[in-house]
Amino acid sequence: MKVRDIPVISMEKTVNRNYVDEQISDEFFMSIQGKVPDSAFNYPFRLDGLIMIVCRNGNCELVIDLIRYSVKPNDFFFILPGSIVQLGDRSDDLLLYAMGASTDFLSDKSMKANIQLFLHVKDNPKINLDEKDSEMLFSFIEFIRSKLMRTDHIYRKEIVQSLFMGFCYEVSAIFRRTLMAAPQQLNRNEILFKELMQLIVTHYKTERSVGFYAGKLCLTDKYLTRIIREVSGKTISEWIKTALIFDAKSQLKYTRKTIQEISNDLNFPNPSFFGKFFKQHTGMTPKAYRMS
User: Fold this and answer.
1) What are the start-end ranges of the E strands in the chain?
2) For the CA atoms of 145, 149, 153, 157, what is the dihedral angle to 10 degrees?
């Protein structure tokens, strides 16, 4: 299984959806919504660009690469290209500010300047902003938006591109300062959990036995099972099933594959077995889910 098998939602498709407020072709978009539409991020997907999300009001759940995060006011998320994303339960007063940019939109200079930040946020995509930083970033976003809305300006793209690079520098500085003030020291069990999740995301389609993952980590099945349950509250098998359901949901919504083709792709014995598995974990048949 290769991680990219989960369908990728292009920037072009994203900017054409009704929850995007402003955009520059298929390279950059901005969304400031008082209420996130049901269509937004309802199903797991990969975006071929960078996403930054900051919560202004309300709360929700955000799943990034199978890890579930609670989102509250002033939480900032830096989501790298290729990440699996899904928006979960949300409050009626949820207000999210979001910006997305294709890798082509990001300048080489900004990419090089933020390479260390990018490497870190892959495993730590969330920080909680203090009031000063929060207001500064919200003001910055509104300023970018004001320039983005000048659709008749000859240098609109270049101005927004430069401002977005400046925004990236501000975010990078906040991340670095936050991490230096409160460095994360993971214990051995937490490190094992992260290593297991990386293995599951890579191998869940073909490898579903605890023994395979324990072997990769040079541990006994019993020991690894106990540690993962202690750290996450879920078993290894439950995490593997979560990955399978994510992939199945994504393929049902974003591809034209038949249910049999999806069943084969996920290495189920037959479509009937796949259907029973899917319904057991979602309460719906694959066909009903696709039609929903």
Assistant:
1) 8-9, 22-24, 28-33, 45-47, 49-57, 60-64, 67-71, 75-79, 84-90, 95-102, 126-128
2) 50
Q: Which residue, among 79, 77, 68, has the nearest Cα to 234 in the 3D structure?
A: 68
User: What's the rounded Cα separation, in Å, for the pair 257 and 206?
Assistant: 19
DSSP 95: E
What backbone torsions phi and psi does residue 203 show, to the nearest 5 degrees?
-120, 5
Whole-number pLDDT of residue 4: 44
Alpha-carbon distances, residue 254 vs 2, 9, 45, 249, 258 (angstroms): 17, 8, 8, 8, 12
* Full DSSP string of 149-184: T-TT-TTHHHHHHHHHHHHHHHHHHHHHHHHHHS--
Task: Give the residue among 69, 103, 72, 74 at the shortest CA–CA distance from 86.
Answer: 69
Report d(CA 127, CA 117) in Å as an integer.
Answer: 13
- Please name the residue that has the structure tokens 């928006």: 87
Query: Tokens 């799943």 correspond to what residue?
Result: 63
Say whether pTM exceeds 0.70: no
User: Residue type for 253, please?
Assistant: K
Tell which phi-psi region holds residue 267, choosing left (phi > 0), alpha (psi between -120 and 50) or beta: left
Residues of the chain with pLDDT under 70: 1-21, 25, 33-42, 103-104, 106-123, 179-186
Q: Tell me what pLDDT residue 261 has.
A: 94
How many helices (DSSP H) and strands (DSSP E) are in the chain? 12, 11
